[in-house]
UniProtKB/TrEMBL annotation:
Keywords carried by this UniProt record: Membrane, Transmembrane, Transmembrane helix
TM stretches of this protein: 20-41, 53-81, 93-110, 116-135, 147-170, 190-211, 223-245, 251-274, 286-310, 316-349, 370-390, 396-416
Record keyword DNA repair present: no
InterPro entries: Cyt_c_oxase-like_su1_sf
Protein's name in the database: Uncharacterized protein
């Protein structure tokens, strides 16, 4: 007889609408990225201060990466800590402030409307402040902290630094009160978010999810996980201090080297977990996760190279570093883990009540595996092509890369639609899937224990 699944859900998990609304917003943001990519990626060949490029970067950062991360952490933090969220109601309020902030900020950046930028930035600060309060209070109430919980806490500190720096930059757009501190604060803003928040939080979440998906949680190299956290976060904060204090190049290089060393440990940890996994066979999240780790590692290596060479802020190399951190690391990981997290939550909603009474689909039967693999190949190819746009200065190549990236996202979103269809009442879509091996009593599936 099948019993209710555990894994990424538990009695402490919040109502499903809280993570679902953020993830749905992230998917809308990803659709917008796909539509705009053929026109936005060619901008990599120009100036990083182009308003259209600035809006595209913030669409990726806030509309996709931040939206999905907020939703995923609202779901996972109570499960990881075995502690209910401090307030689901405040979490829902953070969504509406976040949505309104995006609605003002992105058009404001594109049209250089200072009032819209200021309004949007203020609303986003409110949204992130509420999110930090909910997750931070939940962390504080937890009785037991492990290495994953510390990744979440340290990531929150990086996020707080990033939003304060972003608010100051948005305010300075109108009157320029930052003066010569604008570029140092811009460097701190980007470093806080793309080195001190996103990679740190993704690493902690990945340790828990990959271990759970592969039944290899006990194989985690904990000293390497702790070492990676110290290096990634310590390097990011050191780099921020070097920017703000305008110290010599040696301190900036030391920060970049620490970040790179942390990424090496993270990538090595993932490879180790996949090598010793007890659940053998191909799982579509694996290639996404490995490409994400490679993206973060290459971004960190380029960061070290840029610091060692003392490149100016206008260098094309920084465009590649930012794009690798956003698209190569964060958005690739989001696609891979979405196939596990969202699919499981939909399964829990639709099929858990039926489990044991009739045949229910396996998680991988709820989407097209070949389409998922095709999406991974196209997305990876698009990322590689897009990285050549800035150094070659080729807008034509940017159009091609943008189209390939859009095709990859299209495959992913088609599967997202299929997964979402399983959550609708009176809709049966899984029986038309490619036949898979039968599931007998007592078998253990991804997140589904029978």
């Amino acid at each position: 007889m099948m019993r209710p699944p555990g894994g990424i859900s538990s009695a402490h998990a919040p109502d499903r609408d809280l993570p679902a609304r953020f993830m749905a917003l992230g998917m809308v943001g990803l659709l917008a990225v796909a539509v705009l990519a053929p026109f936005a990626v060619p901008l990599f060949a120009g100036s990083f201060s182009d308003l259209r490029l600035l809006a595209f970067v913030h669409l990726n950062t806030l509309g996709v990466v931040a939206a999905v991360i907020l939703g995923a952490t609202y779901q996972l933090v109570p499960v990881v800590l075995q502690t209910p969220l401090a307030s689901v109601r405040v979490g829902r309020a953070s969504f509406w402030a976040f949505l309104a902030g995006l609605a003002f900020l992105l058009p404001g950046l594109l049209t250089l409307q200072h009032w819209a930028m200021g309004t949007g930035a203020t609303l986003l600060v409110v949204a992130f402040g509420l999110y930090i309060w909910v997750v931070g209070t939940t962390l504080r109430r937890a009785e037991r902290w492990d290495v994953v919980a510390w990744h979440l806490a340290v990531g929150l500190a990086g996020l707080a630094g990033g939003i304060v720096a972003g608010l100051l930059l948005a305010g300075s757009k109108g009157n320029g009160f930052l003066g010569t501190m604008t570029y140092p604060l811009l460097g701190a803003h980007v470093t806080f978010l793309l080195a001190g928040w996103v990679p740190v939080l993704l690493a902690g979440v990945a340790y828990r999810l990959v271990g759970m998906f592969t039944l290899a949680e006990d194989a985690l190299w904990r000293p390497a996980a702790w070492g990676g956290l110290v290096l990634m976060a310590g390097g990011a904060w050191l780099l921020v201090a070097a920017f703000l204090l305008r110290t010599d190049a040696a301190l900036r290089l030391a920060g970049a080297l620490a970040i790179a060393a942390g990424q090496v440990l993270f990538a090595a940890q993932l490879v180790h977990l996949y090598r010793v996994r007890r659940r053998r066979g191909f799982d579509v999240h694996i290639p996404f996760a490995l490409v994400a780790a490679a993206g973060g590692l290459v971004a960190a290596v380029l960061l070290v190279a840029g610091m060692a060479l003392g490149l100016r802020p206008s260098s094309a190399l920084w465009v590649a570093v930012v794009w690798l951190a956003l698209g190569g690391l964060a958005e690739t990981a989001i696609q891979g883990f979405f196939y596990k997290i969202a699919t499981f939550l939909v399964w829990l909603h639709r099929y858990a009540p039926l489990a044991g009474r009739q045949r229910v689909p396996r998680l991988e039967e709820m989407y097209h595996r070949r389409l998922a693999v095709a999406g991974w190949l196209l997305w990876t190819a698009g990322m590689v092509l897009s990285l050549a746009v800035a150094p070659l200065g080729s807008a034509a190549l940017g159009h091609v890369a943008g189209v390939v990236l859009a095709a990859g996202v299209g495959c992913f979103l088609a599967n997202v639609g299929r997964i979402a269809g399983h959550g609708l009442p009176n809709v049966t879509v899984w029986m038309s899937r490619t036949p898979t091996r039968p599931v007998g009593p007592g078998a253990t599936e991804d997140g589904v224990v029978s």
